[in-house]
Amino acid sequence: MTADDLTIDYEENGILTTKQTDKMILSKGAWVTIMFRYQTWEKAKEAYSEDKYTIRRFQKRNGEYTPRSKFNITNAKQAKMIIETLEGWMKA
To answer: In this structure, what DSSP letter does residue 83 have?
Structure first.
């Protein structure tokens, strides 16, 4: 398995409850950092949610990747605030 193979897709009872729609590998090595774009299945609406985002860190040990930490960005407003803050810091 390589970092390119890592996914957050999750199926439960035949339903893809977490559907990965994109990803960006931010760093590779013994520790891998990946930003995922995903949607979750909303049973009550019988539809997928709006886009959500998560940054996950995995540690590679003995050829296997183990999830170690995650940060969830739960909506577009929060994502935009993070982008604006980083852009402001990069200008300084």
So the answer is: H
